[in-house]
Amino acid sequence: GMPCPSLAPGKLRIYSMRFCPFCHRSLLVLHAKNIEHEVVNINLKDKPEWHFKLNPAGKVPILQQDDKLVCESLIVSEYLDDAYGSTKLLPNDAYQKARQKMFIEVGSAALMPVLKIHYNKDNRLELWKEFKDKVRAYEEELATRKTLYLSGDKPGFADYMVWPFFPRVEAFSTIFPELKAPTAEEFPLLHKWIEAMKKDNAVKATINQEHLVQHTRSVLDNNVDYDVGL
What we know:
By secondary structure, this protein is of the alpha+beta class.
């Protein structure tokens, strides 16, 4: 396979995959905080040898700077928030920080049935129903918080950690019209949050919806294309 591109001293690099929602978490933080970085995308079907030296589990994202290596999307994202910039995405208050992290667990679990459709398209109606039942947690959280975002009046850590799953919801409802995305009637607060997040600059810089739909089709057809739109 291709050799690992050499890394300039002090340069921050993220190893990613263009359509991985877990990588998108960390890319959203990089963009939201305007952190200078470079991206090396890995073909997950044909992982280079050196990938396993960086992370024996063979997963992405991986953050590298000089001799520092950080793996696991939530850990990478929190590290970036801690290490860069005076404006933090996570609150300083210990309880508020814990609340956001608790919701990330619940909010991410609600979207796992959607990710399963990639490899279980025959069970899509059942998986979609499970997602629709679980996604009510967002409506409840937003109602309790009485704010537009899960983190308050502007997008914060929790918003960016759960957002990457929502473009997949839209992709599947584009590909399979019978899978209806959450409507404003069913989920008024969630719907407002989704519309607001779509306008966010970090979101716009991270995810190209048209390319994501094409990539999703390629996964469903069992012919994964990582180079859509290049």
